[in-house]
């Protein structure tokens, strides 16, 4: 096992100081595979969050005014620090989150790629000169960093979700206060160390762990914070939107999903199985873009289910730190109980277990990779985010029927379609109410592309050029009397 002790930091970063809590005021962080405590982080609250906001506000004017070249160089060094330490950062991520090492390495890699992307993209963030309707006037549109950014991140991608927020914030010239998930704070605190190593000035990046409610309420109501960027559940996102209303902040919300994965009779079945395996079982089903409802057209249904069940049963389950493991444990007991409840509800209402169905023989929070058939849209498993390694297969007959069913949800994050009919591919892009659509692709995230949901899945985009504009304010200036 790679040594990750260098990046296991048990303190918070506020204004360039690493702060420890009073005795007893800490949160224990454990490895979901072994149950062993990895370490402790401070249980801070409103007071420390206010201090972090003050530090970020104090650091903002000079950081915003720094040369573009300086910020780009800092971001490049941050990228290099991530990649130079990819193995130890991945080992730390696996230890606190449970995902297989190969996925953790991939997460560190894409996080670094986001940092590099925004370092490049900020050089292209142009303003505009507009044609004036009358002579003697000059009209310009200019872009400016929004100010202090509050970033709240989830446990399922504790490193790359931060990269999608810190990357553009720092590129734009913003300063930040980060609140990571309590289950996986070490991957975020490591970013504090990396930012220091890269040479970011004190106060530019601040990281506070502790009471989500207190920290969240302080960040959303403090007028010095100009933007809140959140990735997590729709329920918490709604609360943060409400809280931010009093101080009218810019918002980015990456919220929950309920992705349909649609396989038509004319699909390339090999490709569809490969796509389903990655779209369903990555991070043991704990991703916001995971296939939640797998719709298979009648003509191909039985063959697809047979192949999917074989591939699912063959997945190697174990401690993510072990070589070759493809499915780690679920992040905690509550996550396990939620998945078990959805499976039990489905089977009680007539779903059939094709493989798996319950706790894995390893015990703990390992859930067997599972395939269920006979799912109907009334079952809870088809309406809620499963967040576990369970394929819920729905049989369908017509294109109209599957479009109606797929859109019959408050969510609109990711959707996948497998078809060899070009016309149908374009129709599905038109008709599916989702922000991310994979056609004959099961893994579509890319730093160059805007990532984000429609409807209750969120507001704003991360990645692409849009991911940077969300951290910039636009000003219009009219110079008259020329
Ligand atoms: P969560 O419970 O909403 O928590 C996310 C973050 O919000 C954590 O840091 C959490 O802190 C914090 N939080 C919880 N209650 C809060 C409050 N009242 N005020 C302020 N902050 C609060 O979500 P999760 O279970 O960690 O993550 C899974 C969810 O994230 C899923 O719904 C998934 O779909 C979504 N997600 C979406 C995307 C996307 O890009 N759209 C990507 C990944 C995940 P504590 O940990 O301290 O409670």
Commentary on this structure:
Helix 3 (86-97) packs antiparallel against helix 6, helix 4 (101-121) packs parallel to helix 5 and helix 7 packs parallel to helix 8. The chain is α/β, with parallel strands linked by helices and 482 residues long. Helices cover 39% and strands 21% of the residues. The protein binds NADP nicotinamide-adenine-dinucleotide phosphate (NAP). NADP nicotinamide-adenine-dinucleotide phosphate is lined by residues 152-157, 161, 179-183, 212-213, 216, 231-233, 236, 239-240, 254-257, 288, 385, 413, 453, 458.
Computed structural class: alpha/beta
Please estimate the helix content. 25-40%
Mean pLDDT: 98
Spans with pLDDT under 50 lasting ≥5 residues? none
Please report the number of helical segments.
15
Q: What is the beta-strand fraction?
A: 15-25%
List its traits.
alpha/beta; 15 helices; single chain; binds NADP nicotinamide-adenine-dinucleotide phosphate; 22 strands
Quickly describe the structure.
With 482 residues, the chain is α/β, with parallel strands linked by helices. The longest helix has 21 residues.
Question: What is the element layout, followed by pairings?
Answer:
Blueprint: E1 12-14, E2 17-19, E3 26-30, E4 37-42, H1 46-64, H2 68-84, H3 86-97, H4 101-121, E5 128-130, E6 138-145, E7 148-152, H5 160-172, E8 175-179, H6 185-198, E9 205-207, H7 212-221, E10 225-231, H8 234-244, E11 250-254, E12 259-263, H9 269-281, E13 291-297, H10 298-313, H11 333-348, E14 352-355, E15 370-373, H12 380-383, E16 390-396, H13 399-407, E17 411-412, E18 414-418, H14 422-431, E19 436-439, E20 454-455, E21 458-459, H15 466-469, E22 472-479
Parallel strand pairs: 7-8, 7-10, 8-9, 10-11, 12-13, 12-18, 13-16, 15-16, 18-19
Antiparallel strand pairs: 1-2, 3-4, 5-6, 6-22, 11-21, 14-15, 17-20
Bound molecules: NADP nicotinamide-adenine-dinucleotide phosphate (NAP).
């Amino acid at each position: 096992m790679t040594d990750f002790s260098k990046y296991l930091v048990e303190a918070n970063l506020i204004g360039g100081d690493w702060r420890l809590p009073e005795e007893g005021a800490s949160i224990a962080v454990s490895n979901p595979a072994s149950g062993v405590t990895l370490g402790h982080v401070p249980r801070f609250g409103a007071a420390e969050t206010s201090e972090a906001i003050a530090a970020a506000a104090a650091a903002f004017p000079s950081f915003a005014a720094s040369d573009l070249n300086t910020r780009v160089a800092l971001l490049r060094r941050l990228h290099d620090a991530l990649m130079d330490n990819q193995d130890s950062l991945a080992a730390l991520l696996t230890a606190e989150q449970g995902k297989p090492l190969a996925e953790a390495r991939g997460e560190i890699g894409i996080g670094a790629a986001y940092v590099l992307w925004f370092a490049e993209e900020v050089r292209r963030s142009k303003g505009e000169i507009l044609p004036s309707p009358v002579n003697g006037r000059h009209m310009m549109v200019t872009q400016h960093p929004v100010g202090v950014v509050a970033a709240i991140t989830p446990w399922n991608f504790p490193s790359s979700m931060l990269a999608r927020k810190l990357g553009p914030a720092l590129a734009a010239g913003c300063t930040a206060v980060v609140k990571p998930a309590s289950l996986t704070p070490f991957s975020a605190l490591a970013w504090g160390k990396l930012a220091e190593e890269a040479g970011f000035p004190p106060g530019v990046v601040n990281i506070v762990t502790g009471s989500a409610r207190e920290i969240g309420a302080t960040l959303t109501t403090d007028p010095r914070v100009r933007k809140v960027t959140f990735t997590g559940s729709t329920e918490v996102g709604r609360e943060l939107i409400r809280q931010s209303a009093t101080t009218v902040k810019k918002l980015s919300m990456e919220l929950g999903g309920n992705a349909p994965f649609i396989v038509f009779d004319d699909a390339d079945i090999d490709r569809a199985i490969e796509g389903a395996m990655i779209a369903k079982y990555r991070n043991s089903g704990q991703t916001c873009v995971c296939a939640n409802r797998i719709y298979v057209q009648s003509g191909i249904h039985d063959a697809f289910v047979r192949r999917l069940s074989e591939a699912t049963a063959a997945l190697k389950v174990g401690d993510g730190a072990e070589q070759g493991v493809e499915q780690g444990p679920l992040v905690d007991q509550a996550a396990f109980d939620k998945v078990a409840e959805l499976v039990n509800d489905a089977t009680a209402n007539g779903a059939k277990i094709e493989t798996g169905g319950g706790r894995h023989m390893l015990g703990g929070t390992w859930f067997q990779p599972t395939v269920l058939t006979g799912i109907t849209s009334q079952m809870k498993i088809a309406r809620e985010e499963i967040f576990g390694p369970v394929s819920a297969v729905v049989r369908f007959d017509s294109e109209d029927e599957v479009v109606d069913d797929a859109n019959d949800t408050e969510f609109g994050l990711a959707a996948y379609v497998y078809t060899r009919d070009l016309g149908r591919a374009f129709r599905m892009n038109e008709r599916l109410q989702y922000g991310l659509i994979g056609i004959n692709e099961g893994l579509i995230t890319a730093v160059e592309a805007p990532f984000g949901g429609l409807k209750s899945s969120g507001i704003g985009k991360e990645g692409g050029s849009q991911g940077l504009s969300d951290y910039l304010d636009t000003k219009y200036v009219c110079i008259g009397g020329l």
